[in-house]
Amino acid sequence: MRARFLPSATTLCGPLLALTLALPAAAQQRPYLIWLDAAKIDVAKVMGLPPAQNSPEHRAEFEKVLAISSARTPEREKQAIADQYQTLNAFLNGIDHAYVEGTHRETRLLMREAQIELAILLKSVNRLTSRIRPFQMWNKVRVKPCPGGRPEGTSFPSAHAATAALYATLLSDAVPELADKFEERVKSYGESRLVCGFHYPTDLEAGDKIGRVVAKALLAEKAFKVRFDETRVETRLAFGLK
């Protein structure tokens, strides 16, 4: 008879090997930071640790993901599948906006660079518990993942949630008029990971924390801020604002 929950193969892991496979190619080719000082950001401390495997908290999270995933509609599943891409356009496609896709090159490049900085910091974490994703858990009722590619490796933290928080924080600084919309999108973007059974709520919370910390650190970095301010006008024009 199968156990309700299978224990993880290991309790601790080193660098996020699985996350490396999911990183943008540019991040894999450039394993160093341009804008930030990694020594100034304690990623593990910012994120904290997920509930222990088989703990009451973990079981409660599993049941929550199971309920959300089981109740998804075909339309919500379609949106969740589209949200698998960690790009600026994918993030913006989930909200009502006037942003013109494929234009405003400097803004897109800087946002991409910020995402790579975030991905490298996540990759550098060397003390993080390995966490089995919800759809990989054995239970009386299995979580059915969304069709298509299934993420591998640790569930904690959610790189998607981190990316969404990063984008929202940076965009809100340049376009404060749309800050509420950006924050709403952070929630729906993260929820897509629950809908597909790819993450737990605490994975999203951890990703959100580090995404915002990295965004604020970038804005506090003089060299990045100069570039950011240079693209501010372009970013606002991209949303039809002056």
UniProtKB/TrEMBL annotation:
Keywords: Signal
Database matches in InterPro entries: PAP2/HPO, PAP2/HPO_sf
Protein name per the record: Phosphatase PAP2 family protein
Signal peptide bounds: 1-27
Residue intervals of the Phosphatidic acid phosphatase type 2/haloperoxidase domain: 127-218
Organism: Bosea eneae
Highest taxon listed in the record's lineage: Bacteria
Pfam families referenced in this protein's UniProt entry, alphabetically: PAP2
